[in-house]
Structure formats: C-alpha cells, structure tokens
Design goal:
About 45% of the residues lie in helices and about 15% in strands. It is an alpha/beta fold. Strand 7 and strand 8 form a beta hairpin. Helix 3 runs antiparallel to helix 5, helix 6 runs antiparallel to helix 7 and helix 9 crosses helix 10. The radius of gyration is 21 Å and the shape is globular.
Length: about 375
C-alpha cells in the first residue's frame, strides 16, 4: 500500500503492538543505520537505555546491542523489555514524522502482553519512563519464576475449549501443592496458552483426559518464558508489588487517544481513572486475544498496522482466522456481501453474533518495519 492510500485509511486503521518473544531484533538494525530514520531510532534506544540503567543500576547500551545484532535472552530480559518499547515507539514516531500518519488519528490500538503497555505510552497515557518502570523493576523476579515453568498450547479437535472446564482442572492441580498451572492467553475458541510449574501441565492434561476424554491435546514449547498473565506471578507477590510501584507513576490520568482494546478485559476499558487497576490485573490475568480480535473486526477497521520488531502472534492469529473463514465460505455467499451485513444493525441483529469475524479476509495487514524500509526513499524526500 502506497503512502497516500495508507494516509487516507487512518480513520479506519488499528495499530497492534507486539510483546516479548525469544527473538526481538527484527529489522531494528536497518532502521537504526538508515540515513533518515536513524536519528529518531537512536534517540529512542538511548532514552530506553538510560531508563533501564537507572532502574537496574547496571550499564545498558541498546544502540550497541542493535548495531551488533546481539539478540536478547532470558538473562537479559530487562534489556529486551526496554528494546521492544523503544523500537515500537520509534516506529510509530517515524510513521508520523515522515508520512504524516498519526496513531492518535486512528480508530483504535491494542497490544499483546508488553505491547499493551507500549500502546499506553504511544497513545499519551504515560511516558516511556513510566511504561518501563514496573516491568523492568520486577524483571529479575519474573525471570526467576521462569525456572521450572513450561509453556504449552492446549488445543481441542472438535468443540470449542471450555474455559470453565480448563480453569476447574487448573484449580484441582494447584490444590495438590506440587506446582501452579494456569491459562496465559486465550488465542481462539479452540486454543489457549498455558504455563505450569514442574510437571503440572502433564497432570492437567491427564485430568482433562479423564474428565473430558478426546477433546484436547497439549503441545509443549521448549523455550523458557516469564510466567506473565498467570497466577504463578502471585508467588513473589509481583502483582501487589507492581501496584505499590504504580502509586508514584506520574502518568496514567488521561484516557488514551485513540482508544485501547485491553487484553485484560477484551474491550476498550481504559478511561483515565483505571489505568493502574488494569495494569495490576494485566500481570496475572490471561490475555483475551480472541475477544480483542473480534472486537477490532466488529468496529469495521480496514487496515491493521503491526508495530515492533518482527511481529508474530497477532498477525498469525489473524492469518489463521482468515484462512479458516475463506475455507468455510469458499463455495457460499461472497465475502463482501457478508461484510456488508456487519454495517447494517438491523440485519446483524438477526444473524450470528460473531458475524464480524467474517470480515477477516477483507482487512489489510502491514508490518510497519517492512513498510517503513520499503518506503524509505519517500521519507528521504521530506
């Protein structure tokens, strides 16, 4: 999509911010070394380096890390957080500075995990310093909790997963006193991410097979992850300690512009008075990604800008949904006719509740770091 077309789409546009991953560099080095983009990128990385160093008491040089293409790992989780926040804010500033496309003029934004905190900073609710204070202050304990924690994806082969049944199973396993397990994200009606200590994932799978045979399978991830968005975070009182830290944040008193769909609640919940409350819940509440996907599609957005180094989980979720919708509707009514029904309230009221999901194939997705580099020549002309 060219710059003029993208600029004209702003009112029907959403911004999606990625969270922490095992790889976090993406094309950051290219943006940093670009003759026009480089100054803004360098400034953001230096600002985040200073914040991270002040909080941890250790020297941090994110510019050097990006230049050397030195990936982060669990041991450098604090720097990973700072780098992701810096690069996402830099990308949004580049888009506005060189192409006059403002996040504030878009319809909405949202972010997965750490991405929600970046969305709060990008939409004017808090500064970069405030956005980094809590996750970096508690990064050491989050990493310590990752030891003996396994991430898995729970899948159903037939009917949708029952959140109630899985939650009940987690409670039974936790009551055994041999490790805590809990949902970390609801990815779709038939899939969710779980994190469990020790062998609790295996014991949960056995419990589900006994009580709901044939409905689920579990795939484990070999990487180690901080167990955010699960009750494992209670172990070191991280949610309450985070809430205590947030008392002295300078920001968090204004409603975001544009609105933010929170993955804590699955809807647009930030109102200028509840930022600290939602961020405290963000720490140990599962990410309601599927609810936010539906909420975004139901607003009629036409373009989603994916912000951050090599975005992954949000684009892949939309891609799976698009593939499934296209497969199911291939030999039926045209997709544009279906999407038109969403804009007619009288018709929507008598059609299935989740009709908005059928719009998935009509939404255009743009990976912002790729788009910025593809249109760098136009930025140089400004």
């Amino acid at each position: 999509m060219n710059t003029a077309t993208l600029a004209n789409q702003t009112a029907n546009m959403a911004f999606a911010f990625r969270g922490y991953n095992t790889t976090n560099l993406g094309r950051s080095q290219e943006l940093l070394e670009h003759s026009v983009y480089g100054l803004i990128v360098r400034q953001k990385l230096q600002q985040a380096s200073s914040c991270c160093a002040d909080i941890t008491g250790n020297p941090v040089d994110l510019v050097s890390r990006v230049q050397r293409q030195q990936e982060t790992d669990l041991a450098s989780y604090d720097e990973a957080v700072a780098m992701i926040v810096a690069m996402e804010l830099a990308q949004v500033e580049l888009l506005e500075s060189f192409f006059d496309i403002s996040l504030a003029a878009s319809q909405l934004c949202f972010g997965y995990s750490l991405g929600e905190i970046v969305a709060l900073a990008a939409s004017g609710v808090m500064s970069m310093e405030d956005a980094l204070t809590v996750p970096i202050s508690l990064a050491h304990d989050c990493v310590a909790l990752a030891d003996q924690v396994t991430l898995g994806i729970l899948l159903s082969r037939g009917a949708p997963l029952s959140v109630e049944d899985v939650t009940k199973g987690c409670l039974h396993i936790n009551a055994e006193g041999q490790g805590v397990v809990g949902p970390s994200a609801y990815l779709s009606p038939n899939s969710m991410l779980l994190m469990g200590q020790h062998d609790s994932l295996d014991r949960l799978q056995a419990w589900l097979k006994e009580h709901h045979p044939g409905l689920t399978s579990l795939r484990k991830n070999k990487q180690q992850w901080p167990p955010l968005h699960t009750p494992i975070m209670w172990e070191r009182q991280i949610p309450d300690r985070a809430a205590h830290l947030m008392h002295t944040l300078s920001g968090g008193f204004s409603a975001p512009q544009p609105k933010i769909l929170s993955l804590v609640t699955g809807t647009a919940s930030y109102n200028g008075n509840n930022t600290r409350q939602l961020l405290r819940q963000w720490i140990d509440h599962p990410q309601r990604l599927w609810d936010v996907v539906y909420e975004a599609l139901s607003t009629g957005i036409e373009t989603i800008i994916h912000v951050g180094p090599k975005p992954n989980i949000i684009p892949s979720t939309f891609q799976r949904l698009q593939d499934n919708v296209e497969s199911q509707t291939e030999n039926s009514i045209g997709m544009r006719a279906l999407s038109a029904a969403v804009s007619r309230p009288w018709l929507q009221s008598i059609l299935p509740e989740r009709l908005g999901l059928l719009r998935a194939p009509l939404v255009e997705h743009i990976i912002l770091e790729d788009w910025l580099l593809d249109h760098a020549d136009q930025a140089s002309e400004k």
